[in-house]
Amino acid sequence: MPDYGKKSYWDERYQDKDGNSDEPFEWMCGWDQLEHTILPLLPSRSASMLVVGCGNAPFSASIHDAGFINSIHVDYSDVVIKQQRERFPHVDFRVGDCLDLKEFEDSYFDYLVDKSLIDTMMCYENGTETTKDLFREMHRLLKPGGRLVQISLHKEDEVEPFNYTEGCDFVCTTCKLINLKLFDPQTTRKEVSDGGLYHTFAVFDKIEGTDPAERERIVSQHPLTLTNALSDETLDEVKKVLDLEKLKDPRIISWIDCNRPDDLFEVFEAVIEDYSKILADVLEEDHASLLDQIKATKMSPTDSSTSSSTSSSSTSSPYSSTSPVTSEDFITVD
């Protein structure tokens, strides 16, 4: 396992051997998926906010540009902070150890956002204790009544127990959010596992330091109603659908209809549309709306560093072709 606990690991990860910047990477999911869930939970755009473990993800700039102009974005690696400052000079990036942010006073922030720093901490050699230290530091930094929003690869029953970390006084709600990377053309059916179907989304409200009436008000709001939360029943249906998809034969398309990169892009546009229809049926959502959301998450051809057969850009479907097909014309896309 990588040595996530060492600063040198992250400095090396964020640049190549020649010192060139690594490409920005949006871990798990971006603002385009999360904004509809997060925005109702963080009603004040002028509130003070800390984003911990920001890395080189565009998420920081996105949340700032959504109106959270008093946000500070912190990472352990001075290498990546330098890169992010150059990419997004209008955003406040700072170097800091999220286990010991002594530059900030107690009860400094209204909101904290953690997108997968918890996952990094849990991969430490002493992961559970390190993650408890992270929660204690985030608890210290939050104002009474402040809110921590957290997105994790770990399951709900692995995240929720940190609500009871010694020295913390939180009340918590968790839910599952569908992993829209399932619909990325780079993700094959065989790569889909039950553990990758969703992310855990958690909200921790700090009740320490609140007066009795405010404490009662905050506690009474939980469990919160979270936008786009997946019910266990819906998740079971999604699993069944994807299990059936994984059992299907690979798609067969005519090479004669795919002799240009744009044609291959069209193939994956059709794949995405098929998946969106399946999921729309399960979630009983409007197909066009869901398709727009899925398309917003996929990689564009100009961003792809892989074969053109893993990208998409057109909206027409190759399945409308009536061209004759022979066995020599087939290619397999899975």
What letter string, H or E per element, gives the SSE order? HHEHEHEEHHEHEEHHEHHE
Query: What would you call the structural class?
Result: alpha/beta
> What's the overall geometry?
globular
CATH C-level class of the largest domain is Alpha Beta
CATH topology of the largest domain: Rossmann fold
Total number of beta strands:
9
Do you know the CATH architecture of the largest domain?
3-Layer(aba) Sandwich
**Count of alpha and pi helical runs:** 11
- Total domains, how many? 2
- Strand residue content: 15-25%
Helix content: 25-40%
Distance linking N and C termini: 29 Å
What is the CA-atom radius of gyration, in angstroms?
A: 22 Å
- Strand order, largest beta sheet: 3-2-1-4-5-7-6
Low-confidence stretches are 298-334
* Main sheet makeup: 7 strands, mixed
CATH superfamily of the largest domain: Vaccinia Virus protein VP39
Return the average pLDDT rounded to an integer. Answer: 78
Structural write-up:
The protein is of the alpha/beta class. The chain has 2 domains: 7-230, Rossmann fold, CATH 3.40.50; 249-333, no CATH class. Helices cover 35% and strands 17% of the residues. It is built from 11 helices and 9 strands. It has helices spanning 7-13, 31-38, 59-65, 78-87, 117-122, 127-141, 156-159, 212-220, 232-247, 261-283, 287-297, and strands spanning 49-52, 71-75, 92-95, 109-115, 142-152, 170-178, 198-206, 251-254, 330-333. α4 (78-87) links the parallel β2 and β3. α9 packs antiparallel against α10 (261-283) and α10 packs across α11. It is globular. The two termini are 29 Å apart. Residues 298-334 have low confidence and may be disordered. Residues 296-334 are annotated as: Disordered. Keywords: Methyltransferase, Transferase. Belongs to the methyltransferase superfamily.
